[in-house]
Amino acid sequence: MKNEYFVIMSIFIIVFIVFEVRKSHLSIKESFYWVMGSIAVLILSLFPKIIDKVAKFFGVDYPPSIFFVFVILFLLYLLFRLNKIQALHSEEIRDLIQQIAILKEKVNRKNR
Amino acid sequence: MEKVLLIIPAYNEEKNIKKVLSEVKSEITYADIIVVNDGSNDNTSTIVNKEGVKCIDMPFNSGYSNAVQAGIKYAYENNYDYVIQFDADGQHIAKEAEKLYKHIKKTNCDIVIGSRYLKDLKYKCPFFRKIGTKIFQIMIRIFCHKKITDPLSGFQCLNKKVIKEYSKISGYPEYPDANLIIEMLIKGYKIEEIPSKMRIRKYGKSMHSGIIKPIKYMVQMIYTIVFIVIKNIGKRSGLK
Q1: How many CB pairs (< 8 A) connect A and B?
Q2: Architecture (CATH level 2) of domain B4-231
Q3: Is ipTM beyond 0.85?
């Protein structure tokens, strides 16, 4: 696959993310990781020699594999971050459910 | 006068709840009663209201532990001195609850557990429960140097200190059993057991029924206990 395709793909992703933020489907804070990821792909497509140099630095014989390692690490980080947020939200929802139920009991008692 | 709250978490217990409520209303006159209806699809809430008992209606089913913690939070907010956890399936006996309450008052301990195994009370329990009980007994003995014969018993009486602690726990465990006992022992709370008779449920299914569920429960519980012990290394104030 030619590098131009990657350039087009990363620009497309950046535009897509910007539109999603404009439509309030994604917060500015959450868009950060995706835009940064796309910019990284864009830079690597424009200057592919960076990958060769990084691979050489880490002693990797097949340069594209170092790219995949970084992509996997980045995705794992995003997944872990989502997991953390989801756990926090579950806890907050639990607390809210309990507070709502207790308040409902109070209101019902007062109305009786 | 000390304020006592009897918390009865209930999920789809329309067949058991009426009998349980009439039993506790006649036997436990010194305590307020509150049913935490955990989003039941049946008439549990209607029956509770008809019986004139206070009811916390959870907006949807969110699990046994969430219902129990809601009841404990209610006790904390309304300044109760003691809480007795009581099952809605008819397993717990009202007269036995009084023994828990009397014991906690007499001994000044923080948690009293009603144990089915402290004396031979001829309680027949399912195979997986028996294994689970044994494993958790051993784990409590290893990690806390304490003999707890019935770590899976939900029949407990808590004092004010514990009510506060439980209501503030973020991430109150999904199954508040041996893991919570170990955590409380590590934190220095005094836990005691007294022998307690229990019945076998008449209607409905236990939340630990089947084969997969108990296995999942055991694995999760062992994992949680190990994590609690690791988390509290260096903080073991309650252990000698």
Answers
A1: 40
A2: Alpha-Beta Complex (3.90)
A3: no
